[in-house]
Amino acid sequence: MTDFRDRTGDREPALPRRGAARTAKLASLPLGIAGRAVGGWGKRLTGQSADQVSATLSAKAAEQLFEVLGTLKGGAMKFGQALSVFEAAVPDDMAKPYREALTKLQSAAPPMPARQTHRVLAEQLGRSWSGRFAHFDDEPAASASIGQVHRATWHDGREVAVKVQYPGADAALRSDLRQLQRFSRLFQAFVPGTDVKPLLSELAERMDEELDYLSEADNQRAFAKAFEGDPAFLIPRVVASAPKVVVTEWVTGTPLARIISDGDQETRNLAGRLLAEFHYSSPARVHLLHSDPHPGNFMLTEDGRLCVIDFGGVAKLPHGIPRHLGEMTRLALDGHSGELMQLLRGNGFVREGSELSSDEVLRYLAPFTEPLATPTFHFTRRWMQRQAGRVGDTRGTDFHVGRSLNLPPEYLMIHRVTAGSTGILCQLDAEIPARGIVERWQPGFAT
């Protein structure tokens, strides 16, 4: 039996809760970046080249981004994790420091003291909580935005993962997201072509779901039941749950982040294919969409299955993916601009009073369908950078066409998750049969 006494001394709590302190930390991001920009001009005057100064500023900004968003956890880290999947869109000349910083945010964060962990477990599982475990490791196996995971052995001998929510996570989440929304434009430089403000709004709307571990456990049970026995996927079963603690089966595998960094091409392709199939098939199989697509939530098991974890963010789709999306994708792929425009207007995708022509809209949307034009498609960072540059260039036609289009509220989550999953495919540099997957699972696409 593990010794459950606190071994951490009087370390600071894992989640800083004082509003003023958190606000000051977040406010340091724009101030620090502005200060470094001024310093950069001074270095230019002393003879350093523009490229040298730019590279130094990018590295320092990325370092500060990770330090602030990572150590604060809460909404700050949740936002950083959401940004991380769009890392592939960052131009190569400034990508390396941001890539490293954003990737760290997928799983790295300082742990909370064991004393705090024990207190939460006692509140949630009862004062005799330790009797439920044959062994409990006080050192967390992973830390994330609003909770950390411990490895343990359940009383019946099963290896389990114990996810414990940080005390004060609710207040920190709300405070951070309010503060981040105040200077959302600052983050636009980190992820060109991605509209950060709606992303923050969506995260704010999903706060209650993220904080409710009972709801997360119900979501995971639904996915586990739907994918039970599937040779390609593994969803860990839920063992026990409470509002701020959830216990699931432990799974060992290779995280997608490691496959992204040093996996061979065959493994990258396998991971990408399974990720795409999970994304497109879930609405049909479970009537739910896993809505937190970052590499920290996926791993490959030794027998080649995709293990999926963290079901706090889930979109309910009782009728699956709307058929109109498949129909629009097919029309854009086939170049039918008139029918496409009619369908877009009829379903609220074009802003009132817009004078867009059907050909302009087709030119804007068609490049996004390139992965479906051939039996297989190679998702690369360069392809994603082209798309992000095209729609994010304020001088270009596509930018203004995009501003005239509208994404109805019921499609926001689907769009964001699809974009995030595509970002991971580009990070993986995966070549996959995307067209066949979409034809099988996306209503309205197959002819």
Automatic annotation (TrEMBL):
Gene3D superfamilies: Transferase(Phosphotransferase) domain 1 (1.10.510.10). GO terms for molecular function: ATP binding; protein kinase activity. Residues 135-447 form the Protein kinase domain. PROSITE patterns: PROTEIN_KINASE_DOM. Signal peptide: none annotated. Transmembrane segments: none annotated. Keywords: ATP-binding, Kinase, Nucleotide-binding, Transferase, Ubiquinone. Residues 1-21 are annotated as: Disordered. It holds the Pfam family ABC1. Residues 1-15 have a biased composition (Basic and acidic residues). PANTHER family: COENZYME Q8, PTHR43851. Belongs to the protein kinase superfamily. ADCK protein kinase family. This is Putative unusual protein kinase regulating ubiquinone biosynthesis (AarF/ABC1/UbiB family). It comes from Amycolatopsis jiangsuensis. The lineage of its organism: Bacteria, Bacillati, Actinomycetota, Actinomycetes, Pseudonocardiales.
